[in-house]
Amino acid sequence: MKWLAELVELPASVDGVANLLTMSDLEVEAIERQGAALEGVVVAQILSSEQHPNADKLSVTKVSMGGAEPLQIVCGAKNYKVGDKVPLATVGTKLPNGTEIKASALRGVDSFGMLCSSRELGMNDEHAGLLILDPSAQVGTPVSKQLGLEDVILTLNVTPNRPDALSHLGVARDLSALIGQPIKKPAIALAEASTSAASKISIRVDDPVGCVRYGARVVEGLTVKPSPQWVQDRLRACGVRPISNLVDVTNFVLLEYGQPMHAFDLDQLAGAQIIVRRAKAGEHLTTLDGKDRELSAEDLLICDRDHAQVLAGVMGGASSEVTAKTTRVLLEAAHFQPATVRRSSKRHGLRSESSHRFERGTDVSVIPEALDRAAALLAQLGGGTVLEGRVDVYPKPVAPKRVTLITSHVEALLGASVPAAECHRILNALGFAKISGNDEQAVFEVPLARVDVSIEQDLIEEIVRIRGFESIPTALPPGLTRLEPEPAIALVERKVRAALAGQGVDEVLNYSFVSPNDLEAFGENKSTVVVANPLSVEQSVLRTTMFAGLVQNVIRAARHQAQGVRFYELGRTYQASFDGSKKHAPAANETPQVAGALWGMREGARRWSAKDSVNDFYDAKMAVQAVLGALHIEGTSFEPVENGWYHPRASAVVRKGDSILGTVGELHPRALKKLDAPAGVYLFQLNVDALVQASVLVPHAVPLTRFPSVFRDLAVVVPAEMASDAVREVILEVGKPLVDRADVFDVYSGPQVGEGRKNLAYALRYQALDRTLTDAEVAEAHARIVAEVTSRLGGSLRA
């Protein structure tokens, strides 16, 4: 918060600032008040120190904390002298590590508090004895105030689309717009020597796509030493360990500007050259973590004349890192392609503050300012001299995007009227420069830091998040005041699920991505949509048939010793679209389908109480008929069909008039062999769109008759190849209006009916809604049916 307060004038309330940020899309996950953890720890001065009478490693001290009487403290440290000022944890204090201070006797000597090290105060892990404070420290002052730890740390959840907020300046810019106060950038006091940086170094970028811009400055005459306390405090507060003034400056500017930087020991760079290129095959780099890494040809490197020095955007190398002997530094600031850094970071399992920012996108325009700020700090903290100018390689400058804002569109999208002046004020405060236009329509230039803004709706989002989402009026969207009917396809899918569940068929969910080999087994390897970057070969194409996944389900179940399965899936198949590259047409034509696979024992396992029976063609057909019945689809027929994936002995196409609803059949032995599937797999598939067209979703009630039915059996001999449905259709047509049902109950072929012939037996139901039928009426209708079957179909009545 202290850092932010230097960049923009803040309200007094920390909670108020946190609420402003959270409500404007920068969620504050935690508020940490640093000084609260050190409450009860004060500055004390050591007045005297004597050897403990009963312990060689302990001392008995008298300390003053500003009170009337000195306190007696038993201490185990040896790094102090009388007169030093040190932290004293008073009785009742609870330290950050959980230690509670009590008055106690140590080896027979009373102690009324504890003198503390930096580790016991939670400042770092070092334990070199007591923390010796500045001699000017006022006795009795809270240590948190003396050490500048009376700060508040906000932990922000920055979403990946807002890399501009991964810095104090980025957050300050949002706060500037929220509270209406101007942003105050850091003052850069830079004194340059007469020698130019370009005369000391040379930079060459061989890959301008991977490295868009590379800038550098040179600082000489440096002395390596610890950074001032204020720098260390700010780094620690942000979770960064201070190392030395030279390294700390790069981390400081990273946190301030959001621009990753790196400091090279210039004397360790061969030829004083920087070359940005892709790695060579078999090349290696030892990174700062001490690990030797084999590089890929896709890795972007920063090299000197002879060797690779840095895995660009991810981590530096060990050979040119800053050491205690460094006197000359080359400061680097660059802009790398996000995808290149992301792939290298993932490939090598390396995550760093730099890669976190480069992966999301940094501000290419801030590089000169960040270099100047870092060089000025190096000169201030290290006593060095900044050489004149920067070496800045920027072959193809990035042009800022321009977006048009139409004021009337703001109200249309938000439902609230926002004056043009307020829209423009908010955008200007966020760094969007107005290029041209008026109150009705204006063109804004998007800051290069805002990689998430590209269209007008993005500008409107910026306006509403700064203005406040609570400013959007509460109202129901148009249309919610009336109840819309459920889409027909949703009702059909629900009925399909219920019908198949009633048949004991379980639903499965498979990936739409399948293996090309699976599709080839079904003869479906043409017109496929290939995935550009698949997870594996087994998921490299979009399925053109649901069977590719369902048969794999059966195979896996059989390998796990299942004795029988009944599966179905509701999903989509995908055929490549020839217009996929024209006028933004989709790459594939999607077809909603329901498909199923049955295999093995009907009950899923052998039962002692029932005969062993296996799923067959008629089980699959029954599942289809259950779906048709649930949707009240009548007048359908099952006709033999030749299909590449079905066995010729058991396959059918499901028709309703001229419309094909789907197919059903046994998986062909050829496909079984290619897939290594168990024998006896029966499949069905139905086109959901065709089912929607054919279904009767609102059935009409038919009144029950009060008059009895008359049943007659009819056995006719017909050619063996004739389908029973063909005979049934003639019976129902000729028997109108008296015959309302004709069900096959027996099929016989043998010497008694002759070669090439078969006998079909039907149960006919005669019914009239207005009277009881007489025997004469039934006999007449029955004779007419026999005559028509004989004349039309070449059948004969079996005695």
Protein described:
This protein is of the alpha+beta class. The protein folds into six domains: 51 residues, no CATH class; 102 residues, OB fold (Dihydrolipoamide Acetyltransferase, E2P); 202 residues, Phenylalanyl-trna Synthetase, Chain B, domain 3 (Phenylalanyl-tRNA Synthetase, Chain B, domain 3, 3-Layer(bba) Sandwich), CATH 3.50.40.10; 66 residues, 2-Layer Sandwich (Phenylalanyl-tRNA Synthetase, Chain B, domain 1), CATH 3.30.56; 207 residues, BirA Bifunctional Protein, domain 2, CATH 3.30.930.10; 88 residues, Ferrodoxin-fold anticodon-binding domain (Alpha-Beta Plaits, 2-Layer Sandwich), CATH 3.30.70. It contains 20 helices and 38 strands. The longest helix has 19 residues.
Task: Give me the secondary-structure topology.
Blueprint: H1 2-7, H2 14-23, E1 27-33, E2 41-51, E3 59-64, E4 71-75, E5 85-89, E6 104-106, E7 109-111, E8 114-115, H3 143-146, E9 152-157, H4 168-179, E10 192-196, E11 202-205, E12 211-220, H5 229-237, H6 245-257, E13 261-265, E14 273-278, E15 284-286, E16 292-294, E17 300-303, E18 308-311, E19 315-316, E20 329-336, H7 338-348, H8 353-358, H9 367-382, E21 385-388, E22 391-393, E23 402-406, H10 407-414, H11 420-429, E24 433-437, E25 441-445, H12 456-467, H13 488-502, E26 506-507, E27 513-514, H14 516-521, E28 541-542, H15 547-559, E29 564-576, E30 588-600, H16 617-630, E31 636-640, E32 646-656, E33 659-667, H17 669-675, E34 681-687, H18 688-694, E35 710-719, H19 724-734, E36 739-748, E37 757-766, H20 775-793, E38 796-797
Parallel strand pairs: 10-21, 11-14, 26-29
Antiparallel strand pairs: 1-9, 2-3, 2-5, 3-4, 5-8, 6-7, 12-20, 12-21, 12-22, 13-20, 14-17, 15-16, 17-18, 18-19, 23-25, 24-25, 27-28, 29-30, 30-34, 31-32, 32-33, 33-34, 35-37, 35-38, 36-37
Helix pairs in contact: 4-11, 5-6, 6-9, 13-16, 13-18, 19-20
